[in-house]
Amino acid sequence: MRVIGYSRCGFTLVELLVVVSIIALMVSIALPTLTRAQRNGEGVHCLANEHQLMLAWLQYAQDSEDRLCQPESFTAALRPYVKMDEIYVCKAVRDEHATNSYGVSNTMGGEPRDGIKPFDKLHRVSHPSQRSVLVDVDAESQRCFWPLLWNEDTWMWRPWSWPPSTSLQGMTARHNDGCNISFADGHGEYRRWKDRRTLKLIKGLIADPNAASADSVDLEFMIEVLTP
Fold first, then answer.
1. Which tens digits make up the pLDDT trace of 165-175?
2. I need a surface site. Which of 2, 46, 57, 162 has the fewest CB within 10 A?
3. Roughly how many angstroms between the first and final C-alpha of the chain, as a whole number?
């Protein structure tokens, strides 16, 4: 009986290196897309958190004779309505010890500041679709959100260290150079910071807020949504 021989085939070193190079190239192309998709997913999840907290914020007012909860203690005020701890923390926050990553505008139930008298009752909120309530903030910032400062007849960004022990800025850009903001009518939206100076201010790369305040479209936006 005749046995037919065969030859064993395999990859050469050059062919193997080509295959590895192609795989590495595909991974390098796909990785930014996957990272971007993950960040977008975190942003959507964060907006969903704010939506639940906004429903609780509105319900609190209905159950409290139309009075708004104080920004400094909003988490305690809303706890009977939203009991799950994870709702108070954005998924993009990497600090496992963080207990809150949202702030409430001082205009909503806060104290008079910079010549602005806050709303004390829900029915008194003018143009609710344009008045910010919940905002993404730095995980270590205060719950009362007020990044503005009235200085010499003009608005400017509030410095990080003013006043030294109660910095109220807390602005963040953790969602693709922007943040989520929810309004008094219950809707929420994503706001991307349009001025590069705003990002530098948030990251602490600009020490003087005056340098980031002049002709800033982001500052104008915040004035519009935070002041009555």
1. 444 568 999 99
2. 2
3. 99
